[in-house]
Amino acid sequence: MIIRKIERVTENRKRTLKATIVWEQASFNPDTYYFSVDEKYGELLGNPADAFLCGAILPAFIHGEERVKIDEEVCPQLVDNLHEAIYWIAAWYPEYRREIPIQIEASLKSSADRIPGSALFYSGGVDAAFSLAHNRDSIPIDHPASVSRLILIHGFDIGGKRVEKENPASEEAFLIAKEQAMIAADEYGADLITLTTNIRHLDDRSGIWGHVYVGGAISACAHALSGCGDLFYISAEGANVPASGHFPHFGTHPVLDHCFSSYAVNIKHYLANYDSRLKRVSALKGHKVLLKSLRVCFNPPKEMPNCQKCEKCVRTRLQLELLGLINDSNTLKKCVTEQELSAVAITSDVGLAMYEEIYQMMLSINHPLVRSVKTKIENYKVYKKWKAGKTWKRRAAAFINSILK
Ligand SMILES: [Zn+2]
What we know:
A 10-stranded mixed β-sheet has the order 5-4-1-2-3-8-7-6-9-10, with helices on both faces. The chain is of the alpha/beta class.
C-alpha cells in the first residue's frame, strides 16, 4: 500500500486533509481518502501523515499488503505502537497471521510538540455520555485532562459504507445525531467538532469493522484533529470481564487503543473499570441533559435519534425502565413489551454480559419479562456453541486439506 499526495485543501467552507491510497497486493482500486471539518475548526487539523497511516494500517494488514509506504514524515512512536496493534490483532485472530510482518516505510520525525488539552469521541450513546459525566465530576474544569471538545464522526456508524455515500437518509440521521450531541456540548461548555471521513471505505464490511478496525479508525480521526490537544478519550463499553478472565476481543479494547498513540496524541481507552452498564446508566441520574439526549441507534427512522425497536434501543429502554429513568429520556420511550423483546437477539459476548446483568436485576424484582430475558441469554449460549463447533470443523478441514495437498 502506498499513501501519497497528502494535502490540505479548503473547499466548500471545509478544511480537509486528503491523500491517495494505492493498494499493491490487494485488488482494490486507488482512491482518495479524507478527514474534513468546518472551516472555522480548520486550525485543529493536525498530523495528516499520522492520521492516514493510523487509519490504513489495519486494512492493509488484513488484506495482505506487504508494506505501507507513506510519503511524509510520521511519528516514530506511532510506528512502533502500530506494530504492537498488529501483534494483538494477529494474536486474537489467527486467520490473519503471516510469516513476514507488514513493513512501514516512512521517514521519521525527529521532533514533536504536545498541545495540552483533551477531547472525547462523542456518539451520544450511554458510554460516551457516562464518560463526559465522569470527566466533569472527577477532573477540575481547568485541568488539561478535562474534556473541552466533543468529536462526532460522520462516516463510521452513520454514513460509513460506500453505498451510503451522500445518501440523504444518512445525511439526515447525522444531523439528528449532531443536534443531540450539541445539547450535551452546550450543557457542559464544550465545543462540538463534527469530522467527516471516508477512511472506513478502505474496508467497510460490518463484522470486521467492529472486531478489528474501529479503534484504529477512531484514533486516525484523533491524529487528524491533533490541534485539539494531546489526549483523546475513547469510551470503554460498560461490560464486565467474565469469570474466565477472558475479556472479549474487539477493535476498541483496553490493550489495543493505546497502540494507536503517537508522542503528540495519546489515545485513552476510558473507564474500562466501570464495568456495569446498569451502573453507568444509573450514574446519569445526576446528568439529566445527557439522559434526555441519548442516541444509541444505528438505524434511526426519519427525524428520530432512535428507532426504539432494534436490539440496542430495546436493551437501553430496559435498562432505563429498571432504573426508573425511562420518563427522563426524550429519545427512548416507553417500557419494553414482551413482543418487542422477543423480536431482538443477543449478538455478542459484550451484549451477553449486559443482558446477564439485566436478568439479575429483573430476577430480584420479579419483573414480568424475566423469563424472556433468560430465554434470550440461553439462545445466545446455544448459538455460541454451534458457532464454535462450526469454526472448529472448518479449521480441522483446512488442516486436513493442507496435509493432502
Ligand atoms: Zn434502534
